[in-house]
């Protein structure tokens, strides 16, 4: 059934307290629940429940026999004491047989939970909706040495432990962990002087890979105090690393559970990118304590209320810890690759969706990353100071509540006196706006005319103009910036007049001030001018990007671009990390998007060949400057994931990628692989060798060296999936270390192939599509959430050549007509086919 935002009603019954007792056993765990209900809107009692064996139930101690169905149970209002009652029940569940990794499951001998969004209903019967908040006390009985739940431990003995969380929370924030775990501990003193114990729990042997996560946690705690005035609110904060996990991590109150990929790192096993990922996910989950947990969502349509805001917060944190311009470039690159792609196809949906079948299908780039952009725009429009005032009001007014996007915007209206009704369209209208700019210089005034168009998306044929904040700067012929400002394009057509005596070069949408496609018909030479002189680093990078894209689309001249990139590379005043980004060529997915946006048919083979050619042109242009530039990035001293070293490595490895295109270059790549003393350099060299079909020995060596270290073996699968043939990938699927029970491994092979190997995925005989469909069907029977997520690899199918579209249509139909298909995957396939 479709759930609609418009149908929201308050809960019939609310909950004061929850007492849970778990008697853990792999295939027959017993959960005893004692729940204190109080009247809400009134009516029958509905409790969600899935895959539960109900052993007994009582109301105020008197046994009851409720009507039990596949989705839950109900008790008629007439059988319920009007003023409230105590519900008790015992359910039996099967953690070992739980391959969905939602609810309580076993991962390599360790019990753990994932309850967001609707996993708690697989543990016991409960009103499993975020606007029902309660205080939890939990008793765990098991022989396992470590027994954890939310909040503070209030008692323990041999074979049991009890936990109490004083903060009311929705069921999706419940967590339980039990296993033979080891901890790394530390402490943090809050600015008001309270000492918080910190613990990271891992499997024995992994303790020495937790230091970076712990350090990131302490920096996150400090940052939230300094920048948002938010202190931690319990005496204990715990993180657990799990190998089998559907998502990246989960912000359960006081007991965050993480995919081990975002906790464990050492220089030998983790890349610079992995370290940065750990820092940002640790921050993200920690920041949820205020934006998500203390203030939560009324219903799942409001998901971006916590996710968009928390992503925005973690982006700002990373910008403060590292280089702000480089972080912005990375984020926009990610936004364009994933969110613009989503917005352009059959899966497009608003930041606040208005209906869904399965909410897990809406943990998307739009809700997360576009949601963060919307908050960035809001801050841009009201100003940093007003943003801070509004946020303080938000925390003050809504602490302890389950809120809506309306509540959020109301806070900004009250704090600033602005009318944000038009701004709200950013939450309601799907699709990436196109902003066309025309420029006219009349001798005294430079006039810009902005025309916006929000494309039609599924279910939304007509759109209204939105307020698009455009940060701008005007450059003169010598590259000097003589004027700048903020223009808000808030109607179908708006104009901006800049008084000046000569035609300027306009730098528009600085810092990517709005998530739109900007179409600026620049004069010949303007882009190259901005690549050389723009004072906004983001736009400087983007000018290079646009130059490259022009050549990529038309197979045209690369001279201006090569010249400009060469000058940036040799500018020692520029951050190596920034230079590395200027050096990188748009990926095949991004080129495919630009092709479709220009109204042309996407032929992945043509795109692949063009991109290769453009990179070759650059390598040829830079020729013997490449090696000395690379040598200049040598790093002295021990490995550090912070400071300037990662940027230098990124630049050196980017250059190595171009050197590999020259004669004898692969020998240098092989030497780099042999010499590498950290995972960043090792994986970069391995990737280059494999991309050129010269990775056989290196791959064997890498596999041997890292056997048993699963996060590294994932990389080994991933590289081959991106550059191998279908036959190679089929062989890997038969490899003893391939397992569909660990989402990371499945993604390393299947998602890397479907998203990262366009040539083979789009093979003209349809073998790539068939392989993906086969594995989606296999995965769907085990883990619907992961299968449904992977099906998004088909989301651009309407843009490719007709023969390929027909082949994909056949596979989508085959999946759709499978005898049993999860709600998750059937919703996704339905949307894909309709689009
Ligand atoms: N709230 C978690 C986070 O963003 C992610 C939970 C993912 N759950 C899901 N059903 N996809 O940090
Ligand atoms: Zn989140």
From TrEMBL:
<keyword id="KW-0031">Aminopeptidase</keyword>
<dbReference type="InterPro" id="IPR042097">
    <property type="entry name" value="Aminopeptidase_N-like_N_sf"/>
</dbReference>
<keyword id="KW-0645">Protease</keyword>
<dbReference type="GO" id="GO:0016285">
    <property type="term" value="F:alanyl aminopeptidase activity"/>
</dbReference>
<dbReference type="InterPro" id="IPR014782">
    <property type="entry name" value="Peptidase_M1_dom"/>
</dbReference>
<dbReference type="InterPro" id="IPR045357">
    <property type="entry name" value="Aminopeptidase_N-like_N"/>
</dbReference>
<feature type="domain" description="Aminopeptidase N-like N-terminal">
    <location>
        <begin position="96"/>
        <end position="173"/>
    </location>
</feature>
<keyword id="KW-0479">Metal-binding</keyword>
<dbReference type="GO" id="GO:0006508">
    <property type="term" value="P:proteolysis"/>
</dbReference>
<keyword id="KW-0378">Hydrolase</keyword>
<feature type="domain" description="Peptidase M1 alanyl aminopeptidase C-terminal">
    <location>
        <begin position="526"/>
        <end position="832"/>
    </location>
</feature>
<protein>
    <recommendedName>
        <fullName>Aminopeptidase N</fullName>
        <ecNumber>3.4.11.2</ecNumber>
    </recommendedName>
</protein>
<comment type="similarity">
    <text>Belongs to the peptidase M1 family.</text>
</comment>
<dbReference type="GO" id="GO:0008237">
    <property type="term" value="F:metallopeptidase activity"/>
</dbReference>
<keyword id="KW-0482">Metalloprotease</keyword>
<dbReference type="InterPro" id="IPR035414">
    <property type="entry name" value="Peptidase_M1_pepN_Ig-like"/>
</dbReference>
<dbReference type="Pfam" id="PF01433">
    <property type="entry name" value="Peptidase_M1"/>
</dbReference>
<dbReference type="Pfam" id="PF17432">
    <property type="entry name" value="DUF3458_C"/>
</dbReference>
<dbReference type="InterPro" id="IPR037144">
    <property type="entry name" value="Peptidase_M1_pepN_C_sf"/>
</dbReference>
<dbReference type="InterPro" id="IPR001930">
    <property type="entry name" value="Peptidase_M1"/>
</dbReference>
<dbReference type="Pfam" id="PF11940">
    <property type="entry name" value="DUF3458"/>
</dbReference>
<dbReference type="Pfam" id="PF17900">
    <property type="entry name" value="Peptidase_M1_N"/>
</dbReference>
<feature type="domain" description="Peptidase M1 alanyl aminopeptidase Ig-like fold">
    <location>
        <begin position="431"/>
        <end position="520"/>
    </location>
</feature>
<dbReference type="InterPro" id="IPR027268">
    <property type="entry name" value="Peptidase_M4/M1_CTD_sf"/>
</dbReference>
<keyword id="KW-0862">Zinc</keyword>
<dbReference type="GO" id="GO:0008270">
    <property type="term" value="F:zinc ion binding"/>
</dbReference>
<dbReference type="InterPro" id="IPR024601">
    <property type="entry name" value="Peptidase_M1_pepN_C"/>
</dbReference>
<feature type="domain" description="Peptidase M1 membrane alanine aminopeptidase">
    <location>
        <begin position="212"/>
        <end position="423"/>
    </location>
</feature>
<dbReference type="InterPro" id="IPR038438">
    <property type="entry name" value="PepN_Ig-like_sf"/>
</dbReference>
<dbReference type="InterPro" id="IPR012779">
    <property type="entry name" value="Peptidase_M1_pepN"/>
</dbReference>
